[in-house]
Amino acid sequence: MDKIIVIVGPTGIGKTSLSVQLAKRLNGAVISGDSMQVYKKMDIGTAKVTEEEKQGIPHYLVDIQNYDEPYNVKIFQEKCRQAEREIVAQGKVPILCGGTGLYIKAALYDYTFEEEEIDEAYQKELEALDEKTLYDRLVKVDPRSAEKIHPHNRKRILRALQIAHTGMSKSEREQHQQHRMLFDAFLLGLDVDREVLYDRIDRRVEAMFDQGLVQEATALFSEPATWKYNSFQAIGYKEFQPYFEGTADLDEVKEAIKVHSRQYAKRQYTWFRHQMDVRWYETGDPQIEKDIKAWLYEREG
């Protein structure tokens, strides 16, 4: 199996700087496991790694998609696996870094994402229903998926209902897969006191506004037609919709981004602790590099 280092953790904790540091010391290259940094022009709101921050380290899956084009976990999985093969062929160590849990898991495990046929008539029927009715329907046709999907996550509910409509439910598809790890992976997670993390998040949002987030969001998403783009669903952009509609001021937008970012960080912790066997370290712990080097040496021996 190919070796791969995986860095996970919540937004704003320092995954990017650690990935670059490790890549410099271990002859590595970084693959972004972030679902939004793939989009071109969405730089400030996604906290996209800058050329200066890269320090000359190759980065894959950053700035590869137009922001008006859809991107999903199946596309990511294919591109990530291709990037991993290229890095290994160059004699380098791939370092997968990101906080989008489903993307990270899709990259590492034997998940198969089939092309889904959309029944347009059924989709139209579903879209006319309110969230409660949709969720109640999902509970009936695929209760196991309903347990994992938030009742207000309309997008995921619609997708699960469409999958079930094809004959095999989403949970049944998942059961048929072996959940087998395809790599020899060192999974490390970064942790820090929650209050410290939340303060970092708040300060990062303030910095984004100072760097021109309002101008960036306005240039990309001020037109209502753009609000349907997958890219607009990113925290840091979607909160601007009330501002564009004239129902919120910039202070309210800023506060909403802070709140949603903190909530997202909490969900990330929960997801990684329950879904993957991660070794957790405090941010800045010198033991990280020691443990990884020991792991590389053991595997090579």
TrEMBL record:
Domain Guanylate kinase-like residues, every copy: 2-206
Domain of life: Bacteria
Residues at which ATP binds: G9, P10, T11, G12, I13, G14, K15, T16
Cofactor(s) annotated in UniProt: Mg(2+)
Record-marked site positions (Interaction with substrate tRNA): T100
Keywords: ATP-binding, Magnesium, Nucleotide-binding, Transferase, tRNA processing
GO molecular function: ATP binding; tRNA dimethylallyltransferase activity
GO biological process, one term: tRNA modification
Protein name: tRNA dimethylallyltransferase
